[in-house]
Amino acid sequence: MSEKLKVGILGGTGMVGQRFISLLENHPWFEVTTIAASPRSAGQKYVDAVGDRWKMDTPMPEAVKNIIVKNVNEVEEVASEVDFVFSAVDMSKEEIKAIEEAYAKTETPVVSNNSAHRWTPDVPMVVPEINPQHMQVIDFQKKRLGTTRGFVAVKPNCSIQSYAPVLTAWKEFEPYEVVVTTYQAISGAGKTFKDWPEMEHNIIPFISGEEEKSEKEPLRIWGEIKDGVIVPADDVKITSQCIRVPVLNGHTAAVFVKFKKQPTKQQLIDAINNFSGVPQELNLPSAPKQFIRYMEEDNRPQVSLDVDYEHGMGVSVGRIREDSIYDWKFVGLSHNTVRGAAGGAVLCAELLKAQGYITKK
After folding, report:
1. How many CB atoms lie within 10 A of CB 215?
2. Which intervals hold domain Semialdehyde dehydrogenase NAD-binding (predicted)?
3. How far is the C-alpha of 284 from the C-alpha of 111, rounded, in Å?
4. So which residues are the catalytic ones?
5. pTM for the full model?
6. Was domain 5-157+342-354 assigned CATH 3.50.50.60?
7. pLDDT tens digits along 247-282
C-alpha cells in the first residue's frame, strides 16, 4: 500500500467527487488518503458529510468512510498530505482557476475535471488516446507558475467524448465540416431523477455553455504546441446543438460529416475498430482494451445496453450511413461521468505518471 501515490479529492462530496472515489477503490497505482470539500463539510467523517447524497450505483468504499473531510480552502494543509489531487470543486470559474493554481504552487499536481482552465494556453486539455503529446506544455506552465513539479492538467467536456474520438480515428480522410446534436444525460448536471423529477418524460433544448464547448474543444485537442502554448486547429468547422434528455448516464451524439477525401463505409468502420493510442500501448490500468467499437445492428448503440462498454471508458458507434447532404453520418455513445468526467481524469493521471510528471513527493 505504501508504494501507491497518495491522492486527494477536491470537491469529494459532489457527484463527480463520488465517482472519483468509486473509480479509485482498489486502484493499483493510486490511493485516496485525503478528501477536501466546502467548509460546511469540513471536520466530518466522509460518510457523514455525504449522508444520503451518495449517488453511485456501488456502495461507498469502506476505506474512505471514516476519512475526516478537510476544508478545500486550506490549501497548504491539504497539499502537505498528498502526492497529487483530482479537482471536482463546485465554485465559480475564477475561484476554480485560483484554487487549482494555488494547489499547483504548493508543488502538487492538479488533474482537474473542471472547465475553468480548459482555455488557459499552457494547460493541457487531454484525451489520452488522442493528444498525449500535449502534456509537454506542462514544462512551459511550470516556468510561468515558478514550480518544479506542480501544474494543472484538465480533461475536456463530457459532451465531445462520443464524437471527437471518432473524428480523430478518421483524420486520414480529412473531415472538415461537422454538424452534431448531443443528447445528454442528467448526471452531466450532477443530478439524479430523485433530485430532478421534472426531467422525467421531458427534454430541455438548452444546456448552458455546452454548444460552445462542443464546437471549440475538439479544435484545441487537435491543436499543436507552439511557443509554449497550445494553438487550436483551424481546419475543421463544427456546429452543434446540445439537448438534455431523460437518461441518467450516457451522452449520445448524432453526427454529420463532410470529408476532403472520400472514404468507403468499410474504411470508416476499420478506422474505428483499429484505433488505439498511448494508453493501450502502455496498458494503463483504466485504459479500455478497445477504445472505439463499431456496432452493426441498426438499433445500436443504446444507452441501456452499451453505456458501460469497457467499464464506461469506451465509445460505441453505430449507423454509419451515406448522407444526402453531407458525406456520412453516424451515432456515437459515451459514458459522461466515467470516460467523460472522473474516469477520463483518472486515465490522464495514469498517463502523467507514466510520462514522469506525477511522482511521489
Report:
1. 18
2. 6-138
3. 16
4. 158, 251
5. 0.97
6. no
7. 999 999 999 999 999 999 999 999 999 999 999 999
